[in-house]
C-alpha cells in the first residue's frame, strides 16, 4: 500500500513460497484494498462501496467473449499447403479439410500473446477451412501410424472425387476439332504451271486412279464408238453414204 519501494534501485526480493501461495496472498490483499475506505474521488468510500452505488444506479458491464478476444489479438499469416499440412513455428499442423487445398496458399491466424494448440485456417477470401492440430509423429512400428496414413489416403481420395464431381466433363476430341475450325485457313499460293506426262504414260496414270464405275462407262463408250465406226464403214462400202 506504500508507494515507496523497500529496495528501490535494486533487484526485487524473491517471493518466499510457491505460485499457489503467491496467488492466495494476492487475492487476500486485493480484497483488503477493495474494502478499505479511501479519500479523493471515492470520498471516504471503499472501491466496493463505490462499485455498489454505480450498479444500483444502473451501470452495466460490457462482456467480451474469451474466444473473440483471443482471435482478435492474433496475427494473420500465409502458408502453403503441402500434402494436407501447413508449417507453423517449425511444427507441422494438419486437418482433414486441408486435403482439398494441397498446393494452395491459405491464411492462418497465429496467437500474439498466448500459445495455441490449434491453428485456424481460412481461404484467401476469409472462409473458414478448418482447425489444424499438431501433426502427430508415430513410431515406425506403431500400427496406429499405418491406420492413420490409410485413413488420410481415404480422405484424400474422397476430396479428389468431390473435386471431380464439381467439374464439367470435357470431350477432348470435340475440343480439338473445334479449335482447329477456329483457326484461319492457310494461304493458297499461285501455280507456276503443271508438269504433265504425255502419250501412253498419261493414259496409264488416268486408268490407275479411275474408279470401277468410270472404267465401265469408259469401256462402254469405247465399244459404242467402235460399233458406230464399223457401221459407218459398212455403209460407205455399200454406197449408202
Instruction: State the helical fraction.
Output: 40-55%
Number of helices: 7
Q: Categorize the overall geometry.
A: rod-shaped
Distance between the ends: 155 Å
- pLDDT under 50 segments (min length 5)? none
Instruction: Give the overall average pLDDT.
Output: 83
Structural class: alpha+beta
Radius of gyration from the alpha-carbon trace, in angstroms: 48 Å
**Quaternary class:** single chain
Q: Strand order, biggest sheet?
A: 1-4-5-6-3-2
Strand content: 5-15%
One letter per element, helices H and strands E, the order comes to HHHEEEEEEHHHH
Q: How many DSSP-defined strands?
A: 6
The main β sheet shows up as: 6 strands, antiparallel
Give an account of the 3D structure.
The N and C termini lie far apart (155 Å). 43% of the residues lie in helices and 14% in strands. The mean pLDDT is 83. The protein has seven helices and six strands; from the N terminus they run αααββββββαααα. The protein has a six-stranded antiparallel beta sheet with strand order 1-4-5-6-3-2. The protein is an alpha+beta fold. It is rod-shaped and about 165 Å long. The chain has helices at 19-35, 47-56, 66-72, 143-165, 172-182, 200-209, 212-237, and strands at 74-80, 85-88, 91-94, 105-111, 119-122, 128-134. A hairpin with a 2-residue loop joins β2 (85-88) and β3 (91-94). Residues 179-241 are annotated as: Disordered. Residues 198-234 have a biased composition (Basic and acidic residues).
Amino acid at each position: 500500500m506504500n508507494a515507496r519501494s523497500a529496495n528501490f534501485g535494486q533487484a526485487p526480493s524473491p517471493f518466499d513460497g510457491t505460485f499457489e501461495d503467491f496467488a492466495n496472498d494476492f487475492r487476500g490483499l486485493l480484497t483488503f484494498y477493495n474494502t478499505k475506505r479511501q479519500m479523493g474521488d471515492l470520498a471516504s468510500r471503499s472501491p466496493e462501496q463505490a462499485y455498489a452505488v454505480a450498479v444500483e444506479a444502473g451501470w452495466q458491464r460490457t462482456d467480451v467473449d474469451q474466444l473473440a478476444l483471443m482471435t482478435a489479438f492474433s496475427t494473420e499469416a500465409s502458408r502453403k499447403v503441402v500434402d494436407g499440412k501447413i508449417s507453423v513455428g517449425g511444427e507441422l499442423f494438419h486437418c482433414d479439410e486441408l486435403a482439398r487445398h494441397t498446393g494452395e496458399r491459405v491464411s492462418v491466424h497465429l496467437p500474439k500473446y498466448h500459445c495455441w494448440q490449434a491453428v485456424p485456417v481460412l481461404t484467401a477470401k476469409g472462409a473458414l477451412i478448418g482447425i489444424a492440430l499438431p501433426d502427430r509423429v508415430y513410431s515406425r512400428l506403431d500400427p496406429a501410424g499405418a491406420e492413420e496414413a490409410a485413413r488420410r489416403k481415404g480422405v484424400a481420395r474422397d476430396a479428389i472425387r468431390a473435386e471431380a464431381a464439381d467439374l464439367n466433363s470435357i470431350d477432348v476430341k470435340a475440343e480439338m476439332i473445334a479449335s482447329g475450325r477456329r483457326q484461319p485457313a492457310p494461304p493458297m499460293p499461285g501455280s507456276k504451271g503443271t508438269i504433265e506426262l504425255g502419250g501412253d504414260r498419261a493414259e496409264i496414270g488416268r486408268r490407275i486412279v479411275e474408279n470401277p464405275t468410270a472404267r465401265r462407262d469408259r469401256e462402254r463408250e469405247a465399244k459404242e464408238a467402235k460399233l458406230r465406226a464399223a457401221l459407218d464403214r459398212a455403209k460407205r462400202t455399200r454406197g449408202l453414204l
